[in-house]
Amino acid sequence: MPGAAEPRGSRARRFLFLQGPLSPLYRRIGARLAEADHQVTRVNFCVGDWLHWHGRECRFWRGRLADWPAEAARLMEEGGVTDLVLHGDTRPYHRPAVLAAEARGINVHVSELGLVRPGYMTLARGGLGVLSRLPDDPAIIRRVAARLTDPDLSPRYPGSFALEAWQDVSYHLPNVAGFAVHPFYRRHTPSHPLVDYLSWIRRLAGEGRRKREAARIEAELLAGDAPLFLLPLQVEGDYQILAHSHFGTMRAALGHVIAAFRGGAPKEARLVVKAHPLDNGEVDWRAEIARHAGGDAERMVFLDGGSLAALFPRLSGLVTVNSTAGLDALRAGVPVAVLTPALYDMAGLTHRGPLERFWQAPQPPDPALLADFLKVVVASSQLRGSIHNREGLDEAVETMTARLLDETVPDPDWHAEAPPRLARARAMGVPL
């Protein structure tokens, strides 16, 4: 890894895996680690976990969530755990385990979908988002980037909706059927699976009409000349909203943005609210927009489909809670205002000051700083591969296993001991 200090030396390590992505990824990584003579333990919390990974190295936890922190600590101490591996660091079973690991000096490795996808997975030491150890000081970013080469950001491994849907259904439906096996299990998804799937059936039934309407609205927006500001919605119940922001719901964030837009944007400007591609239609976003817009409804546009990238050349700015869409917009040169401390939220890249001022004088990102930031992010946490593409999965197993086996100690110049965004986030009310 870049800027590495002294290696710790080869030693047998003990990896504790918790919930992974809906994919064979963790099972295959675990097998590779075991082949390298390291000890691997996996905790399953539900039938879906068991279906993705079962074997002699696995154990089932059927207790109550309130008892899990003590059990996690016991597993770490009695098992001599050296490394904790999990997908997302703020799920109900993951946050207590991370805190227990940190208290014992255990390495924490957190995976997630890539920040610069398609074609990358995230594997970060310590945490993600607000909990990331990546510096938020532009001077440090520039200094570290000077030692790195430009990353290959070409897209690879396009995702398959059919594969992604099958992975989701094959995980969640067995949990419904196997409730008696894990009666105290607390799922990390906001909706009951049956409610979610029924919502998707209704949504897919109207897909053709939605696509036609989105194409019409997008064409009108691209042909117009009014200043456009975009709010890309995030999935209601996503932990980026629940845990890494102070809003708690995307609906609350929407209300906040609309109020700021009504109070400070030029009268000729329009706010485009774009649905998330994985929105299941459970929330009536048109009604939510109308509820907050009041007498300014004609200044708001709801776009349920279309291409985010196609809109970038027309945008005066983009507002987001903490979505990766903000990083995509920065890469397209679009000014971005972030409502909570996202990984890419720093002076020179994103708007500083109240949101009310953003509408009047949006400032584009510094291209040189953005290039340096991408160098550091990719080198520190982005690995080639994908869980939504079969070839991508093979590469993700290779790259992520290699990173887990890399025992070089991160240079503190670019890997902070404490999350540098956390104090700022807590001052906003982020519940971490």
UniProtKB/TrEMBL annotation:
GO biological process assignments: polysaccharide biosynthetic process; polysaccharide transport
CDD domains linked: beta_Kdo_transferase_KpsS
InterPro entries in the cross-refs: Capsule_polysaccharide_synth
Designated name of the protein: Capsular polysaccharide export protein
Short name of one Pfam family: Capsule_synth
